[in-house]
Amino acid sequence: MNYLSTRGHPDRKRFCEILLEGLAPDGGLYLPEHYPQVDTAMLAKWRGLPYAELAFEILSLYIDDIAPADLKAICAKTYTPEVFGTDEIVPLRELEDGVYLEALSNGPTLAFKDMAMQLLGNLFEYELARRGAELNILGATSGDTGSAAEYAMRGKKGVRVFMTSPDGRMSPFQQAQMFSLQDENIHNIAIAGVFDDCQDIVKAVSNDLGFKRKYRIGTVNSINWARLLAQVVYYFAGYFQATASNDKPVSFTVPSGNFGNVCAGHVARMMGLPIQTLVVATNENDVLDEFFRTGIYRVRAAADTHETSSPSMDISKASNFERFVFDLVGRDAGKLRSLFVDDLGRQGRFDLSGDPAFRQAAERFGFKSSRSTHADRLATIRDTDKRFATLVDPHTADGLKAAREHLAPGVPMVVLETALPIKFAATLVEALGHEPARPARFEGIEALPKRVVRLPADAEAVKAYIAQNCD
Ligand SMILES: *Cc1c(COP(=O)(O)O)cnc(C)c1O
């Protein structure tokens, strides 16, 4: 399988070449040249496979530069009941007639990002060993991504993680999750500033090409194709659990921010998995909902990005969206460039409302969308507790609300559970008056010794710290 850039760069690359890269050289995102197709015979063969074997089957359609036995071993080592809590890895439970929750958040950091990041950690270790190379991952986090990356890379050979976060601005639980890691290859850097300062530092360091090369700086951000590919697997696993045979359609609702998770659903659907509808659930930051309602994609300024109670969906610009739009415009790289480079550069928006491709988007690609507010979130959390004795986190609550707006008779609706409620305890307390239960392994983590350095919001200070710790 070869990979191309959404912006038309002539080079074609293999999987392991793009694994350690971020954007394509022309600023585009990597996508496979085509989507491998599955038919009912393949689905029949895959139904009932353990999760790790299903992952191997799907990944091997996209990865032909890792020996099959090695890839199989990587999948087997990643998706274990020890790491993800159950034999099913992503168990499905029926909440009410036809509405299901797919549990993706029982990994080490209690958010769905572990599903992809744990695989990425093992792929990185494998590929770096093969090349005899090292990588220093530099990132910025306000919560879920940073901890998922650290738990995936801890103790891995050839990898160090330098994770910046805004000092004192994460929830105490999220902070404790990260700072209690004592592994030598994990470096927590608390920055005196806000999340945007952290992101600016990462950008400034990455733009210093000399430094970047000398210290082999890389990222694990959500545009990484391997992360997206890993997420395709749980759409298949959810489908098999929600149906008894392979000719029935299923719909999915996906709490969305950077469009990575739901883009994986799009890929599964393009492969031929019978998905009827993909519902994009947003919070008050409704860039994506606005697009699917109107055809206008309007990037928000930082000042217009609301701080909400489903904070992992607080985005102003969805970094994976370009992948979907590439398919939407018929994989025409020239047209894609005119939208994402010219129009977004000039006016911060593009408009497909008059385009026949957009008007067919819901029909051809199955997309629908909804938006929720803080009040909706609280109401859904209360209602789900009262009627089903089930606690959901604020992001999953946004999903449930959206799902109910797009139910179709006879079509199971699977809502992806993107985090466990304990990660967002303050909102649960606001809704219910009490804290959610905490998995035993996280009992008392706030009191553990912390491994963190505090630095000013200054890229030079961060560079000096990296240089000191890379020998
Ligand atoms: C990252 C995250 C999301 C958003 O996922 P995207 O792939 O960025 O769309 C939603 N919910 C939670 C809990 C997350 O951590």
Automatic annotation (TrEMBL):
Q: What class of enzyme is it?
A: lyase
Tell me the SUPFAM superfamilies matching this sequence: Tryptophan synthase beta subunit-like PLP-dependent enzymes (SSF53686)
Q: Name one GO biological process term.
A: threonine biosynthetic process
Q: Which cofactor does it need?
A: pyridoxal 5'-phosphate
* N6-(pyridoxal phosphate)lysine: residues carrying this PTM: 113
**Assigned EC number:** 4.2.3.1
Q: Report the residue ranges that make up the Tryptophan synthase beta chain-like PALP domain in this protein.
A: 92-334
List the residue ranges forming a coiled coil, or say none: none
InterPro entries named among the record's database cross-references: Thr_synth_N, Thr_synth_N_sf, Thr_synthase-like, Threonine_Synthase, TrpB-like_PALP, TrpB-like_PALP_sf
**What range(s) does the Threonine synthase N-terminal domain occupy?**
2-79
A Gene Ontology molecular function term for this protein is:
threonine synthase activity
What keywords appear on the UniProt entry? Lyase, Pyridoxal phosphate
Similarity comment: family membership: Belongs to the threonine synthase family.
Name of the featured protein = Threonine synthase
Which organism does this sequence originate in? Variovorax paradoxus
Phylogenetic classification of the source organism: Bacteria, Pseudomonadati, Pseudomonadota, Betaproteobacteria, Burkholderiales
